From TrEMBL:
Name recorded for this polypeptide: ATP-dependent clp protease ATP-binding subunit clpx
Pfam family, one: ClpB_D2-small
Protein origin, superkingdom: Eukaryota
Endpoints of the signal sequence: none
GO cellular component: a single term: mitochondrial matrix
Organism ancestry: Eukaryota, Viridiplantae, Streptophyta, Embryophyta, Tracheophyta
Annotated source species: Rhizophora mucronata
Amino acid sequence: MRAVGVTNAAVTSSLLESVESSDLIAYGLIPEFIGRFPILVSLSALTEDQLMRVLTEPKNALGKQYKKLFSMNNVKLHFTEKALRLIAQKAMAKNTGARGLRAILESILTEAMYEIPDSKTGNDRVDAVVIDEDSVGSVNAPGCGGKILRGDGALEQYLLQHKLEDSVENAEAADGEFQEGESEVSSRTMSM
């Protein structure tokens, strides 16, 4: 019932919502097997924004879990908005949904998690780990991993430095015209 081999995603979704046991039997599955599934449910893929919400909003969000893990060693964890979006895009590209988010975060943070437990002091102490777009990489290529910031106040210095860089980039993009809100840093610390 496809028109020229192309189906609209909305049509496909509505068709999947109306699937019944008899449809699966007609497809070729045996009735004894289908009888073991009293309820049939159709699911749709999560969007990029929904995956970002999975990373940040629920009580046990993955970002919050890693932040808590890092805070046990007095280390701050910071994600930029672009990094969160890239992580969500990678999960979508792998077609793994929310389950793939943990594997992606694990690959980004593994090196940092081994580095943190070192009991160093002063400027050698790990203060924070920053996950930005360089840390994540692109959808098809791995990134460099979490950026380990050492020394007291290293995260604040990093954010201040990048705030100034963002301000310069925004000013150039606006052709010298100052617009309200340009100097705001385009990242967020996940407050948990």
